[in-house]
Amino acid sequence: MSSTPPAPRSGAAKPQLTPADWVQAATEVLVDNGIDAVRVDVLAKTMGVTRGSFYWHFRDREDLLLQVLKTWHDQATEDLINRFERSGASAAALLGGLMSLPLRGEAAVRSASIELAVRAWARRDELARKVLDEVDAKRLAYTSQCFIALGFGFQDARHRSFALYSYVIGEALLYNQSTPEQRKERREYMEKFLLAMPLQKTKLQNNVTAQSDRKSNR
């Protein structure tokens, strides 16, 4: 018995999309056009697929938006903190590294664009607000711990953490308002300003060191 061979397919098969592809596409639309533009039909048309393929990965639009927020939360906070922690750097070096984040070229510009879009979204959506508040709290807590590790008091560490966080966000969002040299100078200034011990505490530490030296020389 002879069989008829299958007809050759025209064109190359499209690669199968993953949930991460949909999340990335949704994030790009969020950045470019805002949360109202993040719709299943818009994304499907942009990606050249049918709406049906979306439902292989997500229950509905809300499920997708939740994954967009979770991905941003993890990449902008959890993964970043874990990467810094694994570096084994000192607390001062960790804080210096955090202050250098807005200076990292295109990666910094993209991160700032996503963050600005999420913050705009959070002004009108309770879930986005909740995730954003959690991200802000974790970042502030982490930098406060770094300042405490350097010997700053609890309240002082919290104030310096807030100042550092405000600087990093402001620098990222106003990236085009300065030259690379100006950003570098500002970063160096902020590092000296934020890591400087209060004069009173510095004198106390010097006195303790001097007393210790005198005892050891007796």
Form type: elongated
* CATH architecture assignment name of the domain at 65-197: Orthogonal Bundle
Helix-strand makeup class: mainly alpha
Q: Helix proportion of residues, in percent?
A: over 70%
Please give the largest β-sheet.
none
Count of DSSP helices? Answer: 10
Mean of residue pLDDT?
85
Question: Distance between termini?
Answer: 108 Å
Radius of gyration: 25 Å
Q: What does this protein look like?
A:
By secondary structure, the protein is mainly α. The protein has a domain at 65-197: Tetracycline Repressor, domain 2 (Orthogonal Bundle). 73% of the residues lie in helices and 0% in strands. It is built from 10 helices and no strands. The chain has helices at 19-33, 40-47, 51-54, 61-86, 91-99, 105-122, 126-149, 154-173, 180-195, 199-217. The protein is elongated and about 60 Å long.
Short structural summary:
The protein has 218 residues and is mainly alpha-helical. Helices cover 73% and strands 0% of the residues.
Outline the fold blueprint:
Layout: H1 19-33, H2 40-47, H3 51-54, H4 61-86, H5 91-99, H6 105-122, H7 126-149, H8 154-173, H9 180-195, H10 199-217
Helix pairs in contact: 1-4, 1-6, 4-7, 5-7, 5-9, 6-7, 7-8, 8-9
List keywords for this structure.
218 residues, mainly alpha, Tetracycline Repressor, domain 2, 10 helices, elongated, disordered N terminus
